[in-house]
Amino acid sequence: MTVRSTGGQAVPTAPKPRQLLALLAARAGLVVPVDLLVDELWQDNPPARVLTVVQTYIMQLRQSLARAQGASTAEVTRETLPFTGWGYRLVVDRERSDASVFAQYAEQGRRALLNGENDRASALLRRALQVWRGPALADVHVGAHLLAHRTSLTESRLGVIEQRVEADLRIGRHHELIDELTGLVARYPLHENLCALLIIALYRAGQPARALDAFELLRTNLREALGIDPSPRVRTLRQAVLDAAPCAESGEPLRAGCPS
């Protein structure tokens, strides 16, 4: 986690204030109730005089932000991290928030993909992914609320990766995608859509045998882990590879699968 301003970094090194700032940043612009802050930091085991402890952490954060901004603590208290009467609100310009920038490019890329603007979609989705520097909140202890936020961010990132791969497949980059998709499938062995994208990339790269192997590995993983078979869409894609169907070669949208 980083918080930068003209005066430098503003992230505390102590675990609890760092966690507190992370939750405020995750809900930037919104009032975060004190009860929720307490629940995130201590769950069912808050310390004695917990409100005083929270106020102390908030004071430390305000001082750090004041140093980073070259402002007074009073200005930060009034404009950047005010108390509303029932919670605290971190005021952040959305254009300076990595999560907001990611979401903006991701949405633009998604719309471009839906409109068939494949080159533009690929470029926008890549810009969204370039915002990421590594796993979300990797250096912050997380409680229940930050865990939910981190999970949501991670799922959003994976969805953008899928959409970017789909855009790249539509514009003929199947050879370039094989290594990336192979790694993603190894990391997410039960993820059907990633496997489907790998099957398509392999088939279009002239490797139908490997495409069928990818399907069989997915089927084995699903049966062993969940006791189920791949979805009809992926089974239809396998049959299209066996039949050398034109839909497996085309650059048409992939989410609907090949016609039976």
Query: What general form does the structure show?
Result: elongated
The CATH architecture of the largest domain is: Orthogonal Bundle
Tally of DSSP helical segments = 11
Class of the largest domain in CATH?
A: Mainly Alpha
Fill in the CATH topology of the largest domain. Arc Repressor Mutant, subunit A
Total count of domains: 3
Find the CATH superfamily of the largest domain.
Winged helix-like DNA-binding domain superfamily/Winged helix DNA-binding domain
Radius of gyration: 23 Å
Show unreliable segments. Answer: 249-260
Number of strands: 4
Strand content is under 5%
Q: Which strand order does the major sheet show?
A: 1-2
Order of helices and strands: EEHEHHHEHHHHHHH
Q: What is the arithmetic mean of pLDDT?
A: 91
- Summarize the main sheet: 2 strands, antiparallel
Q: Based on helices, strands and strand pairing, what is the structural class? A: mainly alpha
Distance between the termini: 48 Å
State the helical fraction: 55-70%
DNA-binding region: 1-92
Family: Belongs to the AfsR/DnrI/RedD regulatory family.
GO molecular function: DNA binding
Keywords: DNA-binding, Transcription, Transcription regulation, Two-component regulatory system
Describe this structure in words.
GO terms for molecular function: DNA binding. The chain has 260 residues and is mainly alpha-helical. It folds into 3 domains: 4-92, Winged helix-like DNA-binding domain superfamily/Winged helix DNA-binding domain (Arc Repressor Mutant, subunit A), CATH 1.10.10; 93-171; 175-260, Alpha Horseshoe (Serine Threonine Protein Phosphatase 5, Tetratricopeptide repeat). The chain is 63% helix and 4% strand. The chain contains 11 helices and 4 strands. It has helices at 15-26, 34-42, 50-69, 73-80, 98-114, 118-130, 144-170, 174-187, 192-204, 208-226, 232-242, and strands at 4-5, 8-9, 31-33, 87-89. The strands form 2 sheets. The protein has a two-stranded antiparallel sheet with strand order 1-2. The longest helix has 27 residues, at 144-170. The protein is elongated.
